[in-house]
Amino acid sequence: MAQPSPGSRPTAVALLSGGLDSATAAALALEAGYRVIGLSFDYGQRHRRELEAATAVAAALGLAEHHVIDVNLAAWGGSSLTDTTIAVPSGGVEVGVIPSTYVPGRNTVFIALGLSLAEARGASQIVLGVNAVDYSGYPDCRPDYLDAFQTLADLASKAGREGHGARLWAPLVYWSKAEIVRQALRLGVPIAATWSCYAGGERPCGVCDSCRIRDAALVEAGRPDLASGAAGA
Length: 233
Fold this sequence. Notes:
With 233 residues, this protein is an alpha/beta fold. Helix content is 35%, strand content 11%.
């Protein structure tokens, strides 16, 4: 990520899901000196708990703005995160198999909307919390996808054609979940306010794949008190 020049404070648009990864990526952009606009999506997910978390994270990090956009991807289903007739997986992610929690086209839609906001506001970065090594294997979280989208973004926008389009920045793409936790702790990310659970209860379920991956990382990073089974978590 390019560092802001002395005396300037350029803008970055951060896609903010409410989860730990996107919150950490946004915090890294703030640390680098960017004015950060948060962008979240009500896409018909199983619950609104993560949107509540996104709002809380945006406030805690002191983002310049936070927008929540309605994009109903649940209308055609195809994912256990948008279709309640499909069970949320809890038996572990099988290597080489894209799980049912993959939402068709989600990141393509989200990044395109982020690109629109970035160009409208003159933002130089689009900050993404995507990760290619967290066992999910989603096709739209991989480096080759990000490289291809960058090419598209440069061709699809006026700013890109003029040579100053927004750059996609995915600082966590190769990080382990434990490293993400360690960086979140260093940056003061409000981990307890983030939400990664696929369920939408008052407390994380602790059994879905997302909870188990997050909990294992918290334990590895020395913060078992923040895991789903801990008192007050």
